Amino acid sequence: MSEEILVVENLSKTIKRKEIVKELSFSLRAGEVFGFLGPNGAGKTTTIRMLVGLIKPTSGSIKICGYNLATHFKEALNCLGCIVENPELYPYLSGMENLQHFARMLDHVTKERILEVVEMVGLENRVHDLVKTYSLGMRQRLGIAQALLGNPKLLILDEPTNGLDPAGIREMREFIRQLAKTNGLSVLVSSHLLSEVQLLCDRVGIISKGELLHVASVEQLLSEQERLIWRVRPAHLALQILQGYTEIKGESSDGLIITPYEEEKVSLWNRVLIEGGVEILEMHRRLPTLEDMFMEWTGGQSID
């Protein structure tokens, strides 16, 4: 198993006697992209602020590269790069001048490291231009370059595609994947774009009302929720028969019945329906999107 770069155990935060985050536990492995999703008021932003040391948890622990954030704060933060909300940049300085300025705040950042992160984010041709001339996507890249100056093992990005057009979103997605793959970075991505998280992330954590509902690979989450759609006649008879064999996930007035997809049982269900006098007009498998599951798990709440 890959090395665990971030380990969160029983993390809680209470503000004014209200429990905002409730005993969250999850981890990130080396080279992994982890999606962190939650509806409005779920506690997602509060969790991120605890992870980057902006606020202290009420209880629980955060370990980054084995360092406990509470007891070895500096060592833990030396392993961390982050962009919370928008990258803070000076528009009337060049990209290079911005990086040099931030490098002076860190220990042992060499000129060679600055040039290395510029190359990593693909800004070699524009790094000496003023930041005010940059597109939003370029500013995001420069912000990530800033976060990478200290050569972190963990990168936390809060809404990295926010405000980008479709082409910029696709480019950022490919860029983050490449960062994780070629540099062994663990990347935690907070995002409201479920379709992008589905394409970008290896695993996903779903948080609602301060509690972590699910943590699993995107592939595993989707496969667990695979459905079988039946179009049958008469529907009421088919429903009565199927209820004796499996859970009914949905039904409609036009003869559609939705059940879990269980490959080894489909032929049995098909046979008992026919023997029971049901006409099967159509049946097909449907793999839900992450958005389908998110809405189901969070009771239809909107995303941040």
Automatic annotation (TrEMBL):
<keyword id="KW-0067">ATP-binding</keyword>
<dbReference type="InterPro" id="IPR003593">
    <property type="entry name" value="AAA+_ATPase"/>
</dbReference>
<dbReference type="InterPro" id="IPR027417">
    <property type="entry name" value="P-loop_NTPase"/>
</dbReference>
<dbReference type="GO" id="GO:0005524">
    <property type="term" value="F:ATP binding"/>
</dbReference>
<dbReference type="InterPro" id="IPR003439">
    <property type="entry name" value="ABC_transporter-like_ATP-bd"/>
</dbReference>
<protein>
    <submittedName>
        <fullName>ABC-2 type transport system ATP-binding protein</fullName>
    </submittedName>
</protein>
<keyword id="KW-0813">Transport</keyword>
<dbReference type="InterPro" id="IPR017871">
    <property type="entry name" value="ABC_transporter-like_CS"/>
</dbReference>
<comment type="similarity">
    <text>Belongs to the ABC transporter superfamily.</text>
</comment>
<dbReference type="Pfam" id="PF00005">
    <property type="entry name" value="ABC_tran"/>
</dbReference>
<keyword id="KW-0547">Nucleotide-binding</keyword>
<feature type="domain" description="ABC transporter">
    <location>
        <begin position="6"/>
        <end position="234"/>
    </location>
</feature>
